Amino acid sequence: MPDLAGQLQNQAHDNQLEGAAELLAEIENIIQEVKAYMENELNIKIQNTGN
After folding, report:
1. Which of the residues 4, 24, 31, 51 has the least number of beta carbons within 10 Å of its own beta carbon?
2. Global pTM value
3. Blockwise average pLDDT, block size 10, the chain, 51 residues
């Protein structure tokens, strides 16, 4: 993801917005995957502390 974010930043800096929407969509997908993973891990920890 850092590579994608860096590429997006470079494109914005150079005012080259072609493909920026696709890069942003990829970054958002990765963020959602990480969020889902973290929520799942948190739920597992909560369940384990309740037992």
Report:
1. 51
2. 0.78
3. 93 94 96 98 91 63
